[in-house]
Amino acid sequence: MRIWPTPRFQVRLAPGLHVSNARHLLWHSYLVRGLGSSQCSTPNESGGDVVIVGAGGFGRETIEAVRAEASSMSHSRRLIGVVDSDPGRFNLARLASLGVPYLGTDLEWLGSNPSAEFVIGIGDPRIKARVHRRFIAAGLHPATVVHPSATVGSNCVLAPGTIICAGVQVSSFVTLGLHSHLNPNATVGHDAVIGDYVSVNPGAIISGRVTCHSEVLVGAGATVLQNLTIGSGATIGAMACVTRDVPSKAVAVGVPARWRG
Ligand SMILES: CC(C)(COP(=O)(O)OP(=O)(O)OC[C@H]1O[C@@H](n2cnc3c(N)ncnc32)[C@H](O)[C@@H]1OP(=O)(O)O)[C@@H](O)C(=O)NCCC(=O)NCCS
Fold first, then answer.
1. Strand 163-164 to strand 181-182: parallel, antiparallel, or no bridges (unpaired)?
2. What is the pLDDT of residues 200-231, one digit of tens each?
């Protein structure tokens, strides 16, 4: 897992972000190969164009979050559309219904020298890592999206690319890594560390002081008990209850969760 630098905090209360109890969001610069601190964007200071990568289900969750955020905040971030290398007819029809332009494949769009920020509306952690590398190589920067109905506690760190969907609850002193995704109604407990490209599916519960290393997928409705560590690339099955540390790349299912090897 990437080691986070000492935060250079910019403490601000996001206007209109309806975080309960006047909680503050703490944004910090971070060191990522190829990214500097000036490229860390926040919803309340960006105001620029944003593109979503991925036309599927999580892409549409991201559309909802971007739109809700834009309509609730004073900045004027504009969703310019969605790129997808293979959207399929169903997803294209859904985009049309939502009035969101399809901008072409990743390569087509990147070839047009775009200047928008991007977020990755794809749940698969390994695909997220690949997309991130491709877009960073093209000189683009990730945005951070927080649905206004989510609550984020004090002293949290949200890395670029983080997407927090409707109804999510993030407690205090939580660190969310690059392109970490919290799906609707997920909960992340105090002092948890969520690594890069982690996806937490709807309704999952990450308890206090849990560490999820990079590229972990936590299935819908799963619970990870407090103080545990989930190794990089591990998958927690839907509705599992994790009671022990999970090794890297393991697929853990059931109550209590078990895995092979
Ligand atoms: C755990 C998981 C990754 C396994 O996927 P997979 O490797 O494709 O597994 P399969 O569907 O081939 O199932 C293999 C076996 O595991 C069982 N299994 C699959 N998922 C399970 C789960 N979450 N809990 C318990 N058992 C599960 C299957 O019943 C099957 O058992 P069998 O061999 O006795 O028939 C997947 O089922 C899962 O839970 N993913 C998360 C899905 C999610 O969160 N969806 C919400 C999206 S918004």
1. parallel
2. 999 999 999 999 999 999 999 999 999 999 99
| Cα of 203 from ligand 1 centre, angstroms | 17
Q: How far apart are CA 118 and CA 161, in angstroms?
A: 8
Please give the average per-residue pLDDT across 61-89, as a whole number.
91
Sheet holding 205-206, edge to edge: 151-152, 169-170, 187-188, 205-206, 223-224, 241-242
Closest protein CA for atom 7 of ligand 1: 251
Query: What pLDDT was estimated at residue 218?
Result: 98
Identify the CA nearest to 53 among candidates 143, 137, 113, 139. Answer: 143
Ligand 1 geometric centre to CA of 214 (Å): 21
What pTM does this model have? 0.86
179 alpha carbon – ligand 1 mean position (Å): 24
Tell me the CA–centroid distance for residue 250 and ligand 1, in Å.
13
Is 184 touching ligand 1 by the criterion CB < 6 Å? no
Ligand 1 touching residue 251 (CB < 6 A): yes
Report the phi/psi class of residue 139: left, alpha or beta, with left for phi > 0 and alpha for psi in -120 to 50.
Answer: left
Ligand 1 centroid from CA 237, angstroms: 6
pLDDT given at position 47: 64
Give the residue, by CA position, lying nearest to ligand 1 atom 4: 237
- Closest residue by Cα to residue 163 from 10, 3, 41, 14: 41
Q: What structural domains and CATH numbers belong to the chain?
A: 49-137 (3.40.50), 149-253 (2.160.10.10)
